[in-house]
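Annotated sample (chain length 121).
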Amino acid sequence: MSKVLVVDDVPSELEIICRILQDAGIETIRAADGEEAIARIREITPDLVVLDVVMPRMNGFEVIRELRGDRKTAHLPVVFCTHKNTDIDKAWGTDLGADAYISKPFEAHQLVNIVQRLLSA
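Output written by the structure step:
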């Protein structure tokens, strides 16, 4: 079973995203901020990361920069899932190496389809 790390500092949004993925048969691991995400990635090596942008201690853009700069995690698929939905935010996320960018609010099937596509690639 694929393992997806879901990173969001808002507990209710973290719960919703995890539940959507779990209902699709995907195992989820949780982190509440960027620093915890980096620690979890080094500990468990997930198959994909769903990542918020605006978080305390280390934001999502900083997390992906660190992941892309480490050869062990450089190719780890990352999906931004965030309220930051301007064209500039999306371009910035893509330039940093995000594999997909989903704006909140989103439809559950959008997230599931993107995650499943990236996991099967």
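Annotation: The chain has one domain: 3-107.
Annotation: The chain has a mean pLDDT of 96.
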